[in-house]
Amino acid sequence: MPVHFSILLIEPPGIDSQLINLMLAPENFHVSAAECGTEAWNLIQESEPPDLVVIDIDLPVSGQIRIGGNQLLQLLGKKSGWCDVPKIILTTSQNSSIPKQLPVSQIEAIILKPYDPRRFMEEIYGSLSKHLDRHIQEVNRQHIHLASLIQELSTLSSKASEKNAFHQKLKAFLEFTSHHFAFEEKFMCQHNYPDFSTHHQNHNQLLTETNTLVSEIVSGSRPIQPKTVDLLKRDFFDDVSDDERYITFLKKVRTDLMR
Ligand SMILES: [Fe+2]
Ligand SMILES: [Fe+2]
User: Fold this and answer.
1) 27-55 pLDDT, tens per residue?
2) d(CA 180, ligand 1 centre) in Å
3) Domains and CATH numbers, the chain
């Protein structure tokens, strides 16, 4: 099953919209389309954030709720989950001050119409490639955070007076592990990662083991000692080891995009 990327195209109907759909159709992209700001905003309310938004800044303003291209970008800039989605802007305006007027930082490219289709596709591939990079960096950042929590647990485990602090840190570790697994799985699922099912099962098993361990420690049936923290460390390294395959897969997808 091919890797799956989702793109939201906000462009009025016409030759440009047809051309973009034609260019994106042979790729492994799932394109959702909206023809004006209001339709786009309604679609955004009920959809998961895509991998990329392509927006014509010169959208026609129509209907009772009038939302233009700039306004839509402002709304997206404030919307949780959507503000960090990379955006490619299409415009007919030569006005170089457009970027300064925009409130969002995630503008990957501004493409002036009429444009070269090859340049357009290069921007699409480049934006998706950076999107993958950011995901990989975030997975690594979360691993570093989990590793530092384990380190702190290890330090606390050797001090009998720090029992409460140990329990609190343990709770934080469990919560972040659960958040981290959900974060990875969401991206895997949305992009048709071929080993998703196995990875998900391993996550579930690790989470069950960690949960049991935490319950035993909190109830007092398992003593707090460095050896106990080693068990948490073992589960964490099991995930990191599984993730190596996942990251290798993402890097290959990124390389294929840039070919
Ligand atoms: Fe992980
Ligand atoms: Fe994982």
Assistant:
1) 778 999 999 899 999 999 999 999 999 99
2) 6
3) 5-115 (3.40.50.2300), 135-257 (1.20.120.50)
Whole-angstrom distance, CA of residue 257 vs CA of residue 128: 8
What is the pTM for the complete model shown? 0.89
**153-199 pLDDT tens trace:** 999 998 878 889 999 999 999 999 999 999 999 999 999 999 999 99
N- to C-terminal Cα distance for the chain? 20
CA of 132 to the centre of ligand 2 (A): 16
Do 7 and 52 contact (CB within 8 A), yes or no? yes
Report the distance separating Cα 252 and Cα 128, nearest Å. Answer: 13
User: Could you count the other beta carbons within 10 Å of the beta carbon of residue 123?
Assistant: 19
What DSSP character marks residue 63? Answer: S
Q: Indicate which ligand has the atom closest to the C-alpha of 199.
A: 2
Tokens of 50: 């895509």
CA distance 52 to 58: 18
Place of tokens 């000692």: 225
